[in-house]
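Quick one: HAD family hydrolase from Paraconexibacter algicola, structure tokens please.
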Amino acid sequence: MGRRAGVALDVDGTLVDSVHHHAVCWQRALAQLGHDVSAARAHRHVGMGGDQLVEALIGAEGEARDGDALRASHDALFAIDLPTVRPLPGARDLLVALAREGAPVVLASSASEDEVRHYLDLLDADDLVAGWTTADDVDATKPDGALLQVAWRTLGTEAAVMIGDSPWDVLAAQDAGMPAIGVDAAGFGCASLREAGAALVVDGLPDLLDRVHDEPFVQWRDGARSAV
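--- reply ---
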């Protein structure tokens, strides 16, 4: 990748296998407050930040009444699960490959600061990223594009591309004005990533790694639309 292009890289479901954990924790948190939501339905909304997910699952009235309590409950439950979350196959290899290509990487996450730092340690990736975002950086998280705009400013590059596992990543990238690569790593499916508008969809990180050095792929990445 040319030095003028950078990568905004999602974490949950893209680099680490945490989507199922989040889905179950949301289901349990919702059940504690009397909301009957299946883990499968919660799973389809993981990738949204908690500020967006609650309303998507139980509506505006539910958000107004229970939103803060649900987020606190989810976070407490997930903190218990966090030590069991493992990297996805190819996660660190991708970070190493992008570093070798000269592509700066910012982790574009709406997780907490503690979670992001935990994942950096898990991936042994402190020296492989230029920075990261957290939910505290913006007023609205994915699928709003604000988080990716922060990531882009942190990259400081003329152009940027988003790599993520969920349709919410793709929609956020569109809102931020950058193309997205969809990685089918967490169960959302290639079709949903294409329908959301991903410019390229790959079947997991190993598939993406196979393409990192391919000339057409490098040219596509270097053609990522520049910031306005």
